[in-house]
Structure formats: structure tokens, C-alpha cells
Amino acid sequence: MAITTGIVGAAGFAGIELVRLVLRHPDLELSIVTSNELAGTAVASEYPGFVGATDLAFASHDDPALDTCELVFLAVPHTAALGMAPRLVAGGSTVIDLSADFRLKDPVVYEQWYAARHTAVELLEKATFGLPELFPDDLVRAAAAHKMGEGTLVACAGCYPTATSLAAAPAVRAGWVVPGGVVVADAVSGVTGAGKKASARTHFCFADENLEAYGVATHRHTPEIEQILELDGRLVFTPHLAPLNRGLLSTVNVPLASDAPLDAASIIEHYRAFYGDSAFVHVLGVGEMPKTSAVAGTNNAHIGLAVNERARMLIAVCAIDNLGKGAAGQAVQCANAVLRLPESAGFDRAAVPV
Amino acid sequence: MAITTGIVGAAGFAGIELVRLVLRHPDLELSIVTSNELAGTAVASEYPGFVGATDLAFASHDDPALDTCELVFLAVPHTAALGMAPRLVAGGSTVIDLSADFRLKDPVVYEQWYAARHTAVELLEKATFGLPELFPDDLVRAAAAHKMGEGTLVACAGCYPTATSLAAAPAVRAGWVVPGGVVVADAVSGVTGAGKKASARTHFCFADENLEAYGVATHRHTPEIEQILELDGRLVFTPHLAPLNRGLLSTVNVPLASDAPLDAASIIEHYRAFYGDSAFVHVLGVGEMPKTSAVAGTNNAHIGLAVNERARMLIAVCAIDNLGKGAAGQAVQCANAVLRLPESAGFDRAAVPV
Amino acid sequence: MAITTGIVGAAGFAGIELVRLVLRHPDLELSIVTSNELAGTAVASEYPGFVGATDLAFASHDDPALDTCELVFLAVPHTAALGMAPRLVAGGSTVIDLSADFRLKDPVVYEQWYAARHTAVELLEKATFGLPELFPDDLVRAAAAHKMGEGTLVACAGCYPTATSLAAAPAVRAGWVVPGGVVVADAVSGVTGAGKKASARTHFCFADENLEAYGVATHRHTPEIEQILELDGRLVFTPHLAPLNRGLLSTVNVPLASDAPLDAASIIEHYRAFYGDSAFVHVLGVGEMPKTSAVAGTNNAHIGLAVNERARMLIAVCAIDNLGKGAAGQAVQCANAVLRLPESAGFDRAAVPV
Amino acid sequence: MAITTGIVGAAGFAGIELVRLVLRHPDLELSIVTSNELAGTAVASEYPGFVGATDLAFASHDDPALDTCELVFLAVPHTAALGMAPRLVAGGSTVIDLSADFRLKDPVVYEQWYAARHTAVELLEKATFGLPELFPDDLVRAAAAHKMGEGTLVACAGCYPTATSLAAAPAVRAGWVVPGGVVVADAVSGVTGAGKKASARTHFCFADENLEAYGVATHRHTPEIEQILELDGRLVFTPHLAPLNRGLLSTVNVPLASDAPLDAASIIEHYRAFYGDSAFVHVLGVGEMPKTSAVAGTNNAHIGLAVNERARMLIAVCAIDNLGKGAAGQAVQCANAVLRLPESAGFDRAAVPV
Q1: Fewer CB within 10 Å, N side or C side of chain D?
Q2: How far apart are CA A240 and CA A190, in angstroms?
Q3: What's the pLDDT tens digit per position in C277-322?
Q4: CB within 8 Å: C50 and D209
Q5: Domain boundaries in chain C?
Q6: Which secondary structure element, helix H or strand E, spans residue A39, and what is its range?
Q7: Rounded Cα gap, residues B166 and B250, in angstroms
């Protein structure tokens, strides 16, 4: 029987991609989508790609139908989930949170970087971090709790942390980083990463034909990546914006210890073993580098690996769709895990080729 | 049981979109994909969007496995299908031809516009024209022939003819065109319409940030549109190129006779009745105009309608994905019709929303 | 001695392009640029392309320095110029108005299309229409008035009217249009044409990879084109949006009378004679069609011509930069004419090649 | 009197931008432009942005008119300049070489990275490296030699080396790099950087909506950057491709020594002092980061600076136009220096604003 599903904040870019994924998911039934700003508007009116595909209209966030959903996705700005999640979890729902509110384990760090008090520390302690390939056991525990009838919350990893960590983790966890070494991640995102709000940054005429760095040394995904990779204070992360819709490429420079391998072939073999069980993460061969266009619209991550031997540096490059594996796709993947559905349920395996 | 399927010319843009559609089609099994240029290359190596999705490699066009396919798509340049189709049809296959070789009913017209002799006139006479919403009976006949075990050939309509004719046909067939009146269609296509061949026209740096008309007064889709709409010598068709990948918008100006309706609401009602049975064609409401982004990656067509009352002109605008409803999608739709599969089998109903 | 110059509404897209053109103009000295919204902000802070090029900051619209300017450009929304222009003209300034307020000769037509009362009818009657290639004598008269010390107002033609009229005028004025015939203009613009205001329409993620028509049968440039070409009620004009910054292409379909020429070569010869004196309008050869990229950043217009003989239709295609010849460039060209400066003063002749 | 100028390889992207810059240069007169492939074709026919701006046609490389030029730009692939430059210099010309043939001081390094023998070692020893802000004295010496009537050769720095070195040099030369520290430069280029040749890489449909790294750990600009910054084996350089025409952004991560400053304000002050005399390099303020759109079409470089204090890393970001300061602009700047013309002669100071 289909699982009743709600999406809060469904009019934003991550939210609307969730709408698409849930609608095509064989085991989920989309009951309610909310947007306070667009309450009453048909989804297909705001996003005409849904003409003929759904008659749903946006409801407001406080619509009581949400409480009857077995599965709820929260695609809301940070601090908003703090107010919504505890009640939903207490009511027994499986809550998949795409906001930043439950990602950082330490509420002090949250308060430093997000300039807001964490008002749901109790739930934070029980929250599951949603990056399935790197923390599979956490999702197994959440699935067990769900099976016992408990409400659960999964805090999905952010887009930059996902790509950057997938690129670096197999090397970092193997102990290949030189002691005290700093990992440098330069990442580039398409403009959907800047959100739906119309602004100078997202104006076509300012984004088109332009490249820029932003949030340099201050981006809020920094502590999240440090937490995932256990690199306290040893990560330099610089995000950039480029003129495309979807796609995120993270180029991660990992300084290699003296006993780490230096040949790409061995490193690729190690990465492939590390991701052996994954349906979504694909490690490319020697001399191959990922393209974001090859993962757009999917939940896939492609990783390319090369070594600068003279500088003893591993260059690990990961491409994802920032709205797919970086947001809505990962959220559905986490839901599949908690609900014990097939990992690939609801996903296309191939990207649109061109 | 799955229908064994082959795609000839699978490395081109229409061909590779067919690969994607056939792989996800519940009733088709992709047995062979061919490309003389790339024979031996893995599909996922040339198009990395297929990494993890298929292990198929391109075979050459003369691979004998083709002859065992129940269903064969020909995504080849014009004149190439002339040589391949007769043998496949004679062998009992259902051939869905995306080339221009069997679209024009009159071989003399073909020879005028394509500067090539038509060497398969016998098959041309039996060929079915593939534009299901406008010529449904032809596909019913082809399905009946297929059921009798006969080979069949469907010549799918081209991208510009599809969008232009879907926009104009309900008005034209209602007899609304002023006697002797000329229909003006100005259409704009994304660059995938120019094909995979690297050239000055398809070079990023020449196509980016540029708009241009091409093939003015000489484009080969002109006689095809005239044939569909029965507008002998009374069509002016001008195609344009714009900097995007997928998408085709045709703005069709239909001069209205004195007894034709002039209010958009009535015209929309007529169009909706005309397309009432279609899963793919959607007629928008008063004041709404289609966006190509809302149909990208799908087999959908969106139509918007407005009237310039002073000039008594209907402006009918149709948006399709030139590789979807304009090529590979329409081909699969035609295959579904001939094989008596559900019309929507293999298709997503919603486009990627952003 | 340099002519003191002010730009009102300098922070918009047409305004800021004027800033660039005036700064590089050998005979003009930019004294003041205004923007109520950005008053106090440095130009180079809002538009970093001016870092190192000017230290000017935006002033407010009511800054008294404006009144001391010999030359004032108004790059303001319609109705705003109605309030500003009369005082400036009365003060003896040469006012070059880029708004729509003084373009339509008949205030009744203005009030119909712009839903606003025309409050400066006296000035409207004396205003000069600014489309130098088609109305050169008007500018000669304005120059004479200026020489006599009188204030003058030039109402520059809009972007779509400029491209469309340059394409059609030589044929229309030659009497080649079939009696009662309707001219169909389908035009495509880059997103700078939609202005600086951040909105769903100008959001990168909605404009990118999309084509659409807008303002169908209702666009306010329609009566202006009809006025220029004297085609009362016999023009169908449909604007479209495509994903590029600068560029406007108008494809104009002119139905030819029985005594009009049908061969492209003769028509091109006529057009070249018509534009013989122009520094900016270039008529391309047989088989050549214009590209907007070839005129971006310039004041040039390129025109290509072809004939559909069977339908007796001339297809005249004109490419301009909507911010150049379609706005700021034309404004400077008009200023040059009134001030008796060389026609090309301040302009580059070549576009950036790629 | 105007200086007679020739451009060899004028049909490529750097070459044609040189054509534009030389045509507008007040002191240079463009006598000859060559392209073996397009010999006989009018410049304005291949690049329609020059319609009305020049009547020149491409000549072949061996046209004797080249030998009479006082100034010759070589915009040819590597190894081609090896054969042309010695003769031209011997004839007394000032040769500005945009190829890689005379950039690397050590011919052994050249032969390693370019897989070709260096056949003009004598000239290499006398060649001037063309990156005026970092090596001004070399150009002073070249100017002195020119004044004595000697032929000279300037080997202009490449696009990535220019942006990367301008970002890093003030810190590196101040001794701020931690001993043994590795500098990590991740740079992104527009597609003009990939050249005019039509290929899969430059095909619109593969470049559009895509991000990728390329030449990872193998790009030929690596030894050039190491040479400029004297970072033997301590540079990791990864170039990326993004979907825009012009623009190059290099994000350079410089690990700071214990006695280096950590506050951005002090570092900016140091950089501004370092570049105090430059007309083209602009160091942005605290919290500001450069945009490539703000330098497109110019010879400007914008630099933004930030510090990650916990990781003791300086993040220096430089934006240039890869065809401007990264190629043709720098070449003209070098020519100006050798010929003792004003540094800014021929350049616009402002970029097109939007």
C-alpha cells in the first residue's frame, strides 16, 4: 500500500524536485505539498512542467493533512525545521529534513555558523545524518526505529558536503591524509543552488557569462564537511557560481601522507571497493573525469581521481546534481532506506544524454 | 514478453535519446544499438550519462542482430533509410524511421527538396506517417498490419513540422484560414536540433549568446508542413537557432476567415476538443503561453493561443522538445501505437521542473 | 569643449549602457548619473565592470546638477519622463528620452496602450522621433532648434520597433506591400530586454534553457511599429524571450504586391541604396542572414533578406543589440545628430568577435 | 606615424581578438592578417562582427608583407612559433608571441611538457617574458633593445598562468608561503579557452549546462606557473571548463607561514601597494570577490582576497578575460611597453556592464 507523503516547502527548488520524484515513486503517494507563499496555487500553474501530471495545489504549512502523512519531507530554510520537526516526529512520522537544522551534531557549532539558537537539542541528539554511502549504519538504526513504530528524523547532508565528502572520504578514512594536512575543496555550483528567490545573484543577466567565488572562508557548509570528514579546522572550502541550472562539481585536493599510494590505478581500486555496494556512486577509470551533465536529473555521483606526484596531492573530483544527490534525490534515497524500500525505487538510472 | 528492439544510428542526438527511452520502457528490451563511427565503443563511454545504466556498446550498422529485432528505430540521415528500411520491413520488422526518407508522399517533391532520387517508392506508398494526434487512423491501420504479422514502416514527422502542425491543424482543419491566405510560421530551436556533428554552427562560442535565422525560404521541412496542413505554396516557414540545448517553439500565424471565431476562449475550447484524447498535447488557458523548459525531456506539446483582432490573425504557439515529441519521443509513441502498447508506456509525464 | 551630460535612471540596463557610452565619448563629459534606489552608491560598486573607469556615484533624480547639463538622457520607465522632460526642455537642455512617453504621436493611442494619461501633450507635439535612418529630417530640424538655443526632446524608438522597422521600411516605403496585406513580425530578445528588476521572468533558472513568447497580441511596441510603418491595424507582432543577455532578432514577413520584385538580389540592391548613407545599418548579401552576436555591444544593425516566391513573401531579418541600437546606442546617435557631432562619435565599429 | 602591424594566426580566437584591438589602437596600423586555412577569405565574412569595420582578408602565413611589419603578433599553436620567430626577430621586428614556445626558460622542461624539441634555443635565451605587472624590468630592457633598432621577442604568459600568478605573486614574493608548502590553484575557464576548432569538447550541446575538470595533474600551464612563482614541484593546478564564452577565474590557495599576516585588510593593503602602478590590476576590498563578467572584453584583472584563519590559508581569487589579459590584451600591453606607447593605448577601461 502506498505510503502517504507530504512535502513542506514544495515550491522551492529542492521542494519541487521532490514533488517530481515522489510523483514517479512506485511506493509513495503524494498527499500534500505546502507553500505559504503560494497556498491555493496549482503546482502546474507555478511549474508548467507538471501540466497533465498532477492536479495538486499548494496548501499552507499548517494544513492538518500533514499530520496524517507517514512520510514528510521538510524543504524549508534553516530555523524553520526547528519548529516543525519535533511535533511531526512525536506524531510518529518519518521526517526527512533537507534544511541545515539537524546536520551539525554540536548545537554550539550550529549557533556559531547559523547565528540562531538551536531550540530542538533533544531531537538533534537522536537525529540520523543522511548521507547513506558514508553513514549506512545510522540509516539502518533509523529503519529499525521506524519498524518499531517510532518517529524518526533524517537530516540530509547538504549539496557541497555531499559532493566534497564523497570525493574525499575513501582517502581520508584510509588514513592517507598527511598528518596536520589541510584539505582544499574548490567547488562550483549551478544557479539552482542559489534558490528560487529572485535577486541580483540569480538574475539571468548577472549570472549568465559569469564566474565568481562567494562565501569565501565563511560558507556554512564548511563545518558540516569538517564534521563528516573529521577534519577539524583543516578544511578550506570555496564555493563558486557558474552559469548553468543544475550541477555541482567539487574538486578536492587531499595532501597524501608518505605511506599513501601515489598511483591513480591503486587509488581508483580502493575507491571502487569503498563504494562497491552503492547504486549511485560511480568511480571513473584512469584518466577520466566527471561531467555534471552526466548526472543532471539523477541521484548519481561520478568521481574522477588523479595524482600530482611531485606535490604528493590527490585530486578527487566529484560531480552531482545539486538538486538530486545534493538535495531531493538524497532525501528520497534516505526515505527508501528508513522505509526499507529498494534503494533505487523512484529513480532513473540514466541521465538525459544531451 | 519484452519486445526485442534495435536502434540504428544510436550515437546521434535523436538516437541516443531513443536509447534512454527504450531502456526505461517497460515493454521493450534494447538488444542492439549501432553506429558505424563508434562501433566497439561503450555507450556509457561516449555518453557518460549512461554510466551504471547500460553495458551496451555500439555495433556496426550491418550487425546481423538487427534482423532479429521485432522493432527497429532508424535514426539515420536522409537517403540512409532508403537502403535499410525495405529489407527490414520485408523481414517482418516494425520499422520506425526518424529520417526524412519516407515522410513526403510524392517522390518528386522528395527529389526536389533533398536532391536525391527516391529508391524505395514501393515502400513509400505503404508507409505510415507518424504524427499520431493528427493521423491516428494511419497508425491504427499499421497496428492491424502488424497484428497480421506484416512488416510495417512508420515515417515519423520532423521536429518543426510536428510543432508547427500541432499549433495550426485544429484551426486549418476547421476551415478557419482565409481563402488563399498564407500561414507564417517562425520557429526557434535549441542546438541539439543541429545534430552531433561538431561544426562552426554547433561550436559553443558561436552558438552561445547568439540568435540567427537559417535556411530561410529553403528549409526542407517546408514541404512536409505544407503536406500535413494541405497548404500547397501557402506556407512561409523560417527556422531560427537559439542558445539552449533542447526545446523548439513554433509561432504560427494563421490568417482567419471572416466566419472564423476571433475570441481566444472559443478557439481554446475548439483546440481542447480537438486534442481531447491526447495524453501528450496540452492546450493552455487564455493568456497563457508555453515554455519549452516545461516540456524538455518529455513527449509533451504545450499550445498557447491568442488573437490579434484588428489584423484577424490567430497566433498559435507550440512548444516541444525537439528530441522528444520532435524525434525520439514521437518515435516511441508511434511504436507504442503499432505494437498496441499503452500510449504513455515508457514516458515521464512531468518535466524536470527547473 | 566637452558637453556636460546627465543620465537619469542610470542604474537600469539601458542607463548603465549609456554610462559606458558617454564615458568613452570624446565630446561628452559625464557630470551626473541618477538612481533614486541607489543614490549614494558608487557606479563601480553596483556594476564592477566600471572599477578603475569611473569614480562617479549615483545621485538622486532631483539633484540640481541635472539642470546645468546641456545634454540629459532619460532612461526611466514610462510616465516618469512625462514629469521630468518639460522642465528640462524649458531650461534649454537637449533631452534624449528612452522611455515610451513621447514616441506615440497620438496621445489617445498612448492612453489606450499604456493605461495612463498623457500630461505633456504640448511637448509631445514638438518632440522629435529618434530613429535616424528612417526619420533623418526630424533630427535635422531638432539640430537647427538646438543651434538656436532652444531645448529639444528626442523620443528614441524602442528596441523591437527599431529592428522591425529597419527590416521592413525599405520595402514598405517602396509600396511593395500587397494592398491590405498584413505584416507579421516575430522577434526574439535576450533577457536584458526584460530589465534589471529581479523577477521570475528574469531568474536565471527560469530563463535559462527556455524559449517562450510573451505579450502576444498585446505588446506595447505594436502601435509604435504601426506608426513608423504606417500600417494601421495591419501588423502582427509577437515578441519572444531566449536565453542570452544581449541581442534582438526580428524576422519580418512582408507580403509582396504583384508588381514588387521577387528576387533577393534586386531587393538587396534596393535596401543598400536605401541605407546608403548609414554608418550603422548593413545589408547582407544573398544567402546571408544576420547574427545578433555580430552586433552585440555596438550600435550596428545587420539585415538579411530572402524571398519565398511561391507565397510571394519577403522575409527580412534584422539583428541589433537591444541595449545598443535598441536603446543606449541609438540615444547617443540621436544626441550626436542634435549636437552636430560626427555620427559615429563614441562608438566602436566592430563587435567583440567571439 | 602609425606602426605597421601584422597578426599571424589571426583567425583563431586570440588572433581575432588581436585584430579587434589593433584596429582600434590609435598608434597601430593593421597591415596584414594571416590564416593558412582561410587565406583569401574576408575577415568580416568569417567574423561578421567586423562588417563595416575592416575590408581586410586573411593572407597566408608566408605572405612577404609580414616581413615589412614593424610589429608582428604570433597567435599560432606551439612549435609553429619556433619556425617563424627567429627570422622575424633577425629582420628587426618586434615579435609578440602568444604561443607557448618561448615561455619556459628551460628547453628541457619545454620538451618534457610539450613533447617537442626546442629548435630556437638561442632566441629563447634572449626572449622577454611578457607578464608586465610581475616582470616589468624585462620589458624595459626589451624597449631599450627596440630603441637600439634590435629585433625583440616577447613570450606572453598564458591565460591560466597570468590569473594564477597575479593572484599569488604578492604573497609568494613577500615570503608568506609556509616552507615546503604546496599552493593549490583551481581555475575555471570559458569555452573560448578551448579554441576555435570544432570538437566534442567545444560542441555547444556538450559544453552547455556542464562543468568538468580537464588536464588534471597534466596541464601544460603547470610548469609555467611554477616558473613564474618559483614553486618547483609545489603547485597543484587544476583547470575546469564552464559554459560561458569569455572569462577565467583562478582560485589560489596559499598556505601561510607563521609570520605571515592573517587579516584580510592588511593583505589587501599589501596587494594594493604591490600593484600600485598598474592600470589594469585592481585589488578589491574586504569581503569583495571578482566576477569574470566585470572584466570581459578588457585587459583588466580583478583580485579578491580572504583568509581561512583556522587553516592558515590565503584564498586569492583572480578574474580575467582569457582572451583579454589572458591573451590578446596582454599581447598589446606588451607591445605598448616595448614600443614605449602609453600602457593603456588601445584599451577600454570599462567592461560592457551587463
Answers
A1: N
A2: 9
A3: 899 999 999 999 999 999 999 999 999 999 999 999 999 999 999 9
A4: no
A5: 3-156+325-338, 159-322
A6: none
A7: 10
**Residue B118 contacts residue B102 (beta carbons within 8 Å):** no
Question: d(Cα D91, Cα D85) in Å, to the nearest integer?
Answer: 10
Residue C319 grid cell: 539583428
Write the CB contacts of D270 (distance below 8 Å, at least 6 apart in sequence). Answer: D170, D171, D174, D261
**Is the distance from CB of A104 to CB of A110 less than 8 angstroms?**
yes
Alpha carbon B299 to its chain centroid, in Å, reads: 10
D52–C294 CB contact, under 8 Å: no
Identify the CATH number of the domain defined by range C3-156+325-338.
3.40.50.720
Q: How confident is residue A103, by pLDDT bands cut at 50, 70 and 90?
A: very high
Picking from D335, D353, D349, D351, the residue whose alpha carbon sits closest to that of residue D29 is D335
pLDDT at B59 over 90: yes
d(CA D248, CA D321): 6
- H-state helical runs in chain A: 13-23, 43-46, 80-90, 107-114, 121-126, 136-147, 159-173, 204-207, 221-229, 264-274, 329-338
- Residue pair D167/D235 in contact (Cβ under 8 Å)? The answer is no
Walk across the sheet containing B3-8 and list its strands. Answer: B28-34, B3-8, B71-74, B94-97, B152-156, B128-130
D216–A186: do the CB atoms touch at under 8 Å? no
Which residues in D lie closer than 8 A to residue A255 (C-beta atoms)?
182
CA distance linking residue D168 with residue A154, whole number of Å: 42
User: Given the C-alpha cell 532508424, which residue does it identify?
Assistant: B74
A chain contacts of residue C191, beta-carbon cutoff 8 Å: 204-205, 208
Q: Residue B73's beta-bridge partner residues?
A: B7, B96
The confidence band for B319, taking pLDDT boundaries of 50, 70 and 90, is very high
d(C-alpha A270, C-alpha A248), whole Å: 24
Hey, how many other C-beta atoms are within 10 angstroms of the C-beta on D281?
Answer: 25
How far is it, in rounded angstroms, from Cα A152 to Cα A266? 39
Chain D residues within 8 Å of chain B (Cβ atoms): 13, 191-192, 196, 198-200, 202-205, 207-209, 243-245
Mean pLDDT calculated for residue range A167-192:
98
Say which CATH architecture domain C159-322 belongs to.
2-Layer Sandwich (3.30)
B4 near B29, Cβ under 8 Å?
Answer: yes
Give the cell for residue D217: 595533474
Q: Which of the following CATH numbers is that of domain B3-157+325-338: 3.40.190.10, 3.30.450.70, 3.40.50.2300, 3.40.50.720?
A: 3.40.50.720
Which segments of chain C have a pLDDT < 50? none
| B169, three cell numbers | 491543424
Task: Provide the grid cell at C202.
Answer: 528574469
**Catalytic: C334?**
no
Q: Please calculate the CA angle A126-A130-A131 and round it to the nearest 5 degrees.
A: 140
Q: What is the residue-averaged pLDDT of chain D?
A: 97
User: Which DSSP state fits B257?
Assistant: P
Mean pLDDT of chain A: 97
What's the predicted TM-score (pTM) here? 0.98
Question: Matching CATH topology for B3-157+325-338 and B159-322?
Answer: no
Contact between A237 and A223 under an 8 Å Cβ cutoff? The reply is: no
Contact yes or no for A303/A318 (Cβ under 8 A): yes
pLDDT at B1 over 80: no
d(CA D84, CA D61): 9
Q: Residue A251: what are its φ and ψ, rounded to 5°?
A: -100, 115
Asked if the ipTM is above 0.90, the reply is yes
Q: What's the first-to-final CA gap in chain D, in angstroms?
A: 36
What is the distance between the alpha carbons of residues D94 and C243, in angstroms, rounded to a whole number?
A: 43
Cβ within 8 Å, pair D353-C23: no
Return the C-alpha cell found at D214. 580537464
Rounded to whole angstroms, how far apart are CA atoms C126 and C103?
11
